Known about the structure:
Layout: H1 2-11, H2 13-16, H3 34-48, E1 64-70, E2 74-81, E3 96-102, H4 111-114, E4 125-131, H5 132-139, H6 152-162, E5 175-176, E6 188-194, E7 197-202, E8 208-214, E9 216-224, E10 230-234, E11 237-243, E12 248-254, E13 258-268, E14 271-283, E15 288-293, E16 302-305, E17 314-316, H7 324-335, H8 342-350
Parallel strand pairs: 1-4
Antiparallel strand pairs: 2-3, 4-5, 6-11, 6-13, 7-8, 7-12, 8-9, 10-11, 12-15, 13-14, 15-16, 16-17
Amino acid sequence: xxxxxxxxSFLLGDSGVRKRPHKSDTDIPNVFNEYLLSKAxxxxxxxxxxxxxxxxxxxxxxxxxxxxxxxxxxxxGMHYDDCDVLFCSQNFSNLGRELLFTEDxxxxxxxxSTVGMNHVDDSLYQNFYVDLNxxxxxxxxxxxxxxxxxxxxxxxxxxxxxxxxxGENILPKFIYSNKPExxxxxRKLCLRVKSPISIDExxxxxxxxxxxxxxxPGIQYVVxxxxxxxYYEIGEKKYxxxxxxxxxxxSIQGLVRGSxxxxxxxxxxxxxxxxxxxxxxxxxxxxxxxxxxxxxxxVSELILDIDGDGIDNLxxxxxxxxxxxVSLTALKSVVGTLDVYRGIKxxxxxx
Length: 351
């Protein structure tokens, strides 16, 4: 109850400490309407207490079957932290944000929410779990929440349920009556980027993760063609995850003048076992670059064409801390792209 009270207090602005931000300000956490929030809490209290009717013998009068997707990293929360940038003012506009993930979901909904009705008596409910991770790995596709009903073995399960032949058959492949244990032998790579760059990934057969323009400029959609992969953008941060079954080409494109940090984490059974980064690399809108990776230890150097003239002019190795010489070399190239008088540009280069 204390945790719930703390969360409600945060949503309501911590007793007036935080004010509701302007509708255009998406950086500051919003402040909820207290009346509407209380109505939502009351409604959920009623829904959460609902139980199916039972007859005189205690048997349920209706059959309840719950099916949850499992094995796809799913956002379970958001971690707010103070700003970790040098000289950054410590206010709500500059909060650090990190997505928190769990494999206990289908990419959108965590499984405890999907099977959340069996909180009173498990005997009244029948639960099934679709191991999407296992299916995607074997079949080399990327099913998740949005297209879970396209899983053929789930269609077989539905047929058996409707025909009331479920008890006669062995459960279809990838379907389990109990939540699967984390048995994945494959490692995953998590890539986190702090803008201002776009990022695209391709495997050896051309499958793509990233944003694709649709119809015209400014209208884009996410492509996640690699099995068990995801792509998220939250504020100025980008999150990409993929397996280590192939060697991938990671391509970047500068969006504005600034600097970026790209962090690679190798994850096994939910634990980070290795990490490398490209830190504080200056870029311009003309900057293009690429590197290859399969595991963190095999990550290649990042090759950059800073000014977009088609000639590679900087090679950056992954490291655990910034390299001032590399940053200054890149910054010199970025200054060279400025559309200013030659005298001003030379002064900046001399400095």
